[in-house]
Amino acid sequence: MSSGLLDVLGYVDEELIRNPEEGVRSLSEENPDHPYGIIGGGREESASERGQITVKRLREALDFFRAGIKAAGHEYEGSLDENVFVVTPFGTYKPTCLLPPWMYLDISGLDGSKALFVGSKSCPRVNPVYIAKSFEGFILPKLREVGIEIEAEAEAKYVGVPGLEGRRYILPVEIGYSLDVSENLREYTESISEKLGDSTHVFLPCLGYRKPRENWEYMKEKLGVEVVELPSLPPSTAGMRLASCLEKMASKEGVELYKGYSAVSAKIEGSKCFSVEAVHRSEVSEVEASAFVLATGDYISDDLLVEKDRIVERAFGLRIETPEDQDYLSWLDDTPFPVSGHPASRFGVKVDRAMRPLVKGDVLAENLFACGSIIAGYDYNTEKCGFGVCISTALASAEGVLSYL
What we know:
Blueprint: E1 11-12, E2 15-16, H1 20-30, H2 35-39, H3 47-71, E3 84-87, E4 93-96, E5 114-119, H4 128-145, E6 153-158, H5 172-179, H6 182-195, E7 201-204, H7 212-223, E8 226-229, H8 237-252, E9 262-269, E10 272-280, E11 283-288, E12 292-294, E13 304-306, E14 311-313, E15 318-319, E16 358-359, E17 362-363, E18 368-370, H9 380-383, H10 386-404
Parallel strand pairs: 5-6, 5-7, 7-8, 12-18
Antiparallel strand pairs: 1-2, 3-4, 9-10, 10-11, 13-14, 14-15, 16-17
Helix pairs in contact: 1-3, 3-10, 6-7
């Protein structure tokens, strides 16, 4: 489900964040219960000290990520000093922090340019006509509202994908598979060249799956313009590449991966968790360990179960804290995509500074830790901070496990 872009912090209270490090520092200082505030020590630290600790731990997490991903044959560009504004397949823009170099193009640097959005008629997930019209009629006016003044043009062209002729429906990742074949890449590039005109930038649904950098460099050289891969809807090509690299990193470190399993229950006695029961189709496995990390996600992954008057975390049966005397109708806004987010988006498992889940303020189990979107106190959809929170709380959880062991 990941976009493959590393969002650290894009908005706070609907205000656009240009410098993610300063934004995270300020957010941590002001909100000790936000996951960023918690990794900085939560309410046990002063505001200024909490902000400093948060930024330090976030940088450590990002450095660890970039080093590991590079060793696995992938790469990300960007820094905590500045957010990048990228075009989305929805015809909007979003602020993000780190992204692959072939996707790295800040819209704010497009002044005086002419963008060509390329699509395939068999790939409705990337509609170049819609994106081009939105670029001129929505994205540029919206950027001006936040002080980014640029003048640029946009147009759209449909180009057939070699090897996928005759297909009625294709995904961006399938375009990537096709372009990993050298002859297909050459033919596709030639077709774009014929429609390039005076465009200075070309935006594509995908540049390749296994060879995105190689294909990107080839197309830039042959076309003589900047070439950019657009983010895609799930299943995201960039997200799939990232998942593959993370699996390589884990395997290299001796981690055994069991895909497709869902944690459904746990055995806790006293102050210790002894095992977790996981299910894959009809197969049930009991996993014993010295320590556990709850990283099962939220509503999307079905680990937060919504009932009429309560929300329950599935694996450990935790009753999620919600406002008293409210039912599920009060947890949702009247509109599907409210700017400030749905109240339910901030619900989740509360943790202490060691990332251990809490039940009414008490630690559930001394050897149980949590990280990622299961944690309460933030809305990754509206704050655009999902990856930053996941990676920093994951590192904090890992440190908690090592300290316990």
